[in-house]
Amino acid sequence: MTTATVYTGYPARGAKAKLRALGGPMAVVAGLGVCCAAVWIGDPTTPGGFLPLCPTKALLGIDCPGCGGMRMAYSLMHGNIPAALHYNAVSLVVVLLLVWSTVAWTLGRLRGRAMNSWLHWRGTPLVFSIVFVVWFVIRNLPFAPFTGLRV
Q1: Using one digit for the tens of pLDDT, what is the confidence trace for 7-20?
Q2: Cα dihedral 124/126/129/132 (nearest 10)
Q3: Residue 1, pLDDT above cutoff 60
């Protein structure tokens, strides 16, 4: 049994080939849609909802790099960019980068060859790690202006 990969070097032609090529990206977008619907319904900006609390904040009392991510997503879905930046600016940038990589992945599957995105850059793991650690530290510094980064 042989399975054909979508990265054959030839573009997907015909409905069946395009559907096979778009299967993975459509599944990812559907899963994200379900997550977005849960965040929309749960309204994390209002305390006492059914959405879970951040375990790091609940156990240690400090903000992790992802704290405020659901509130950022909720604000972004409602078009409130300043609130999204307030809740978690780094997560907003990561969302934009993930949209870029998903579009590149989808186009690559349709074109039959991998498309370059930020995930393929040599320095991505190092830069991502540095930003992650710096964001984690500066969010928890106990003096101004860094106390404004807490959520």
Answers
A1: 778 888 888 989 99
A2: -70
A3: no
Nearest-angstrom CA–CA distance, 23 and 25? 6
> With contact defined as beta carbons under 8 Å apart, do 138 and 64 qualify?
no
Using alpha carbons, select from 76, 53, 41 the residue that is nearest to residue 151. 53
Is 74 in contact with 43 (CB distance < 8 Å)? Answer: yes
The answer to whether the CB of 11 falls within 8 A of the CB of 112 is yes
Q: What type of residue is 84?
A: A
Question: Could you tell me how far CA 17 lies from the centroid of its own chain?
Answer: 28
Closest by CA to 150, choosing from 73, 67, 69, is: 67
> With a threshold of 0.90, does the pTM exceed it?
no
| Of the candidates 2, 36, 23, the residue with the CA atom closest to the CA atom of residue 109 | 23
